[in-house]
Amino acid sequence: MFEKSTWIRLPRNVVVGHGVLGRVREAVDDLYLDGTPLLVTSPTPYELAGERVATQFEAAGVEPETTVVEEASFGAVEQVMAAAGEADADFLIGIGGGKPIDIAKMAADELDLALVSVPTAASHDGIVSGRGSVPEGDTRHSVAADPPLAVVADTELLSAAPWRLTTAGCADIISNYTAVKDWQLAHRLKNVEYSEYAGALSQMTAEMLVERADSIKRGLEESAWIVVKALVSSGVAMSIAGSSRPASGAEHLISHQLDRIAPGTALHGHQVGVASVVTEYLHSGTDGEWRSVRAALESLGAPTDAAELGIEDGAFLEAVTTAHTIRNRYTILGDGVDERAAREAATVTGVIGGD
Ligand SMILES: NC(=O)C1=CN([C@@H]2O[C@H](COP(=O)(O)OP(=O)(O)OC[C@H]3O[C@@H](n4cnc5c(N)ncnc54)[C@H](O)[C@@H]3O)[C@@H](O)[C@H]2O)C=CC1
Ligand SMILES: O=C(CO)COP(=O)(O)O
Ligand SMILES: [Zn+2]
């Protein structure tokens, strides 16, 4: 008897384009949401976009509340839940980079409230995913949550953000190559469930982004358009999979370790990009595809080595050799990479040993 079932949660409305920040309230109306919104944001995004979103509701006679989160943590999720309770909020709007959107997503899920995602940076593929990524002690949780009901991505706002945020989003997408390889490996060796559709979508998203690298340039609003579409597509792959597997493998574990070893030094997307050069080498060896991964990062203006991340060689190696411990997710790191092997991989690929 065939008893398999799945439940794929996807956003209903994806609104992308020039000036769409001014249409957040319209997007909310289109979802038949009413009542008081709680805006969940971080300091810079609040100034850049939060106030403008609040004004749209005020003009319609609704007084939105705002809570500002400083970090991605379970404490911040609780802060948002408490703020939603105090404000008697009817739905949440996450405004900012990956951290406030993740926190808003998880709080909305806990409270059974709808969420609208308003990214202010094209820096990560969590803008529509049904996941929240949060560190806790020695581990890093990838928490299931309802995806946003709508995402409103204003290309004018995103292209005015510091360019490094956009190159971080590109690198988060490039890392899909190795994430999919890790997922396939875990499927072969550990019988982890694999979705051909999610794997193919994730990989194709990376390929299409790299093919369009020539159109992704600082100051070009079309760049934000191309990158956002890739971020949405990658987030949908995660929703289809019901896991972050299509977009998060060993390179993400290494990046999560870097967040602990060298907090606040480099952007998530940049870290996963550099780490994927090394994990691609571990997958396919000296003559393998690590050069293509590095070239793709370079063509999109993302860092390709530890020095560009601002991370010391020793710290990078520590992250590689300890990354397997932080999550029960089988990857090319297996049960751990020996220090000499890590050094060899990072040196051959030019990730460490630079100036
Ligand atoms: N849930 C998921 O599926 C995913 C979650 N993530 C998570 O997202 C986080 C990384 O996202 P980031 O955006 O890099 O972090 P972030 O939210 O800390 O933003 C990075 C910086 O950019 C600033 N910023 C945002 N918009 C700006 C603008 N328009 N102009 C100037 N500055 C602006 C922020 O204030 C912050 O200082 C990590 O915690 C990562 O684990 C990443 C990918 C997928
Ligand atoms: O960053 C991610 C995908 O780009 C997801 O990260 P997690 O695996 O920690 O949820
Ligand atoms: Zn990521």
Folded structure, characterized:
The protein has 355 residues and is α/β, with parallel strands linked by helices. It has helices at 24-30, 43-59, 74-87, 98-111, 155-160, 163-174, 176-190, 196-211, 221-241, 250-261, 268-284, 290-299, 306-309, 313-322, 339-348, and strands at residues 13-17, 37-41, 65-68, 91-96, 114-119, 131-136, 139-144, 150-154. The chain has 2 domains: 13-160, 3-Layer(aba) Sandwich (Rossmann fold); 163-348, Up-down Bundle (Dehydroquinate synthase-like, alpha domain). It is built from 15 helices and 8 strands. The strands form 2 sheets. The chain has a 6-stranded parallel β-sheet, sandwiched between helices. A two-stranded antiparallel sheet has the order 6-7. Helix 3 (74-87) crosses helix 4 (98-111) and helix 7 packs across helix 11. The chain is globular and about 65 Å long. One of its GO terms (cellular component) is cytoplasm.
CATH superfamily of the largest domain: Dehydroquinate synthase-like - alpha domain
Order of helices and strands: EHEHEHEHEEEEHHHHHHHHHHH
Trace the largest sheet across and list its strands: 1-8-5-4-2-3
Query: Which sheet architecture does the biggest sheet show?
Result: 6 strands, parallel
Bound ions, cofactors and other small molecules, one mention each:
1,4-dihydronicotinamide adenine dinucleotide, 1,3-dihydroxyacetonephosphate, zinc ion
Principal-axes geometry comes out as: globular
CATH class of the largest domain: Mainly Alpha
Query: Would you tell me the structural class of the helices and strands?
Result: alpha/beta
GO molecular function, one term: glycerol-1-phosphate dehydrogenase (NADP+) activity
GO biological process, one term: phospholipid biosynthetic process
Family: Belongs to the glycerol-1-phosphate dehydrogenase family.
EC number: 1.1.1.261
